[in-house]
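Allow me, if you will, to draw on your knowledge of protein folds for a short while. I have a record of one protein: its chain in single-letter code and its fold written as discrete structure tokens. Kindly check, if you would, that the fold set down in the tokens agrees with what the sequence suggests. Thank you for your consideration; the sequence and its tokens are set out here:
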Amino acid sequence: MSTFEAHNLFSVRGKVALVTGGSRGIALKVYISSRTAHECEETAKELNALGPGTCIALPADLQKYEEIGSVEALAVPDHETYAYSASKAALHHLSRHLGGRLGWEGVVSNTIACGFFESKMTAHTLATSGDPLLASTPAQRFGKPEDVAGTALFLASPAASWINGATITLDGGLLLSGAQLRREAMNRMSKL
């Protein structure tokens, strides 16, 4: 049996993963956590019905720990999100620190830095400024739950066993589009 076969590279059999923000539909064999206990339990119930494996809900308010990475921490934003950007940069560094400390025990720690995804948090921004944001994203779409789920599955699989302390940018190329294009998009957005 070759270790290069897809089912060997991406199997999460025997792995334990904690996916924060998990009540929004990230579907892996994992423990999931979110602030809303009811939604977390409902998502776990749905995932368990799909099988195979087990999904365990761990409702917890991790918001104060800023558990989800963001592209806001990877470049200097051209808008005033000072505390948010700094807290996300701190999270990315914490993940690297944990990777260095826990790597000796076989535990890896990585961060997914998300760009724009449709969510409760981004609903207003996308409703009022979605077109310019979309225009500044080379992939010409916003992120989907499957994008995060696929990235999380990859990071939890043997295919990523040599990755530790990394921040994976998941933004459809937004950061690659350049500051000038982003500024132009933000200017168009401010005139709406």
Notes: Strands lie at 18-20, 31-33, 56-57, 69-70, 111-114, 167-170. The longest helix spans residues 82-102.
